[in-house]
Amino acid sequence: MRKRIAVIGGGIAGLAAAVRLRDVMPADTEIIVYEQGDALGGKLRTGELTGVPVERGAESFLNSGPDGGESPAVAFARRVGLGDALVHPAAQPAALAIGGELVRIPPGTLVGVPGDLSALDGVALPEDSADRDTGRPLLAPGEDIAVGELVRSRYGAQVVERLVDPMLGGVYAGRADRLSLRATMPQLARTAETEHTLRGAVRAAQALSKRTPGQPVFAAVDGGMSRLIGAAVAAAGARISLGLPVREIVRTGGRWRLTLGAVPDPRTDEVDAVILAVPAKPAARLLSGVAPQAAAPIGELDYASVALVGMALPPGTPLPELSGFLVPPGEGTLVKAATFFTRKWPHLTGPDGPVIVRASLGRAGEQERLQLSDPELLEIAHRELGELAGRKLPPAAESWIQRWGGGLPQYTPGHPDRVRAARAALPPGLALAGAALDGVGIPVCVASGERAADDVSSYLEEA
Asked: Which residues belong to any copy of the Amine oxidase domain (predicted)?
């Protein structure tokens, strides 16, 4: 009998689930992707500045996985026919903005946590004596603490504030003292169960990496991430439902009934299995009636709001020879990171094209600082970028603001255990996917969606 499967959420995790379902399910399976917004892609969205494609969301993805092979995002791009469209950024160093100067990020750190304190070269002054061997591992098996708590206890406050905070802030817009070690740095969490010093744990975690020396760290799709979304939609062969939120899911015998659309004029759909690939709060709301024990831990997750600013400066505008920089929270700026887009992706503009800069504004707990008009945010970003780069910038020829309200999940300690508990409490035929559970970043979201599709496929084979 022909099966129908609902994927609720049209971001990259939901689309990856739909493509995997198309690969593993019988050819006549109907796959429906429900997206309450008016476009697919979630936080993957390509914009333009003076005719140049510039991302309004995620700019790139990891090129390789922990095993040294291609990352799930690269494999996914190949699956949907974009293997020949993969491009890599130019080899340019990045910096930290500290005390009005741009200083190179020290080499050999693991998300800002150094394994060799001598390489810090004055960027941060560690408390070297605190990282002594006490005769036992740093963490008990399965123990989870905040990244900042571990690093602060071993290296001192300055390493956290000048290195780890800006590195984690660039990815999660969060603070090291609130982010889960196991959720954000799982390799370090594992080695901390056996190593007696933080230096030893960092070096052991780095040794686990099988990335080939000289291999590009990041990749992107030439022409923009929106191409990846379009190719995924084509590969999935799914029916797409836009603009109708799913308000309720109910178990009806061996199937699921979905209630869609506005309350005064609802419609329903019945399917054989459901994949939820939406943020935590809507996921918890939809789970509350069918899996309350799964809804509770999922609903605890908080999010940070950020805004992205894109600016096209006149050709020839001088910028440092860097791919960009990160800003420690202690500097007090609204700008937390910047990419010198033209230097990082020189193939897009050429030597005589506009000088494009992209900046990220806002951190967890700073939502009120983003409650300004677009022109006000643009003015602040333009001024701060000039101050941080060490020179006044000329007026932008073109610019835009992209706001991501509640865009980045904040994984507090214990997050992986809460996710395991939620998945264990799900009824058969219902699976979860997305950044709310498994981590930010395109490779992780792709893998999360594919895992959910495999779970649903196995259920339907046995049903």
From this structure: 12-456
Name the domain boundary from 208, 229, 254.
208
Distance CA 252, CA 235 (A): 31
Task: Identify whether residues 187 and 243 lie together within a single domain.
Answer: no
Q: Where are the beta strands (DSSP E) in 56-133?
A: 61-62, 86-87, 94-98, 101-104, 109-110, 113-114
* DSSP letter, residue 417: H
Please state which of the ranges 32-46, 118-132, 170-184, 326-340 shows the lowest mean pLDDT. Answer: 118-132
Q: Residue 388's closest CA among 312, 341, 343, 327?
A: 327
Domain contains 12:
yes
pLDDT at 121: 86
Evaluate if residue 128 carries a pLDDT over 80: no
- Residue 1: its pLDDT value, please? 82
Q: Is residue 193 part of a domain?
A: yes
Domain span at residue 154 reads 102-208
What is the CA angle 267-270-275, rounded to 5? 105
280 and 149 part of one domain? no
Does residue 278 form part of some domain?
A: yes
- For residue range 425-457, list pLDDT tens digits in order: 999 999 999 999 999 999 999 999 999 999 999
Contact 40/335 with Cβ under 8 angstroms?
no
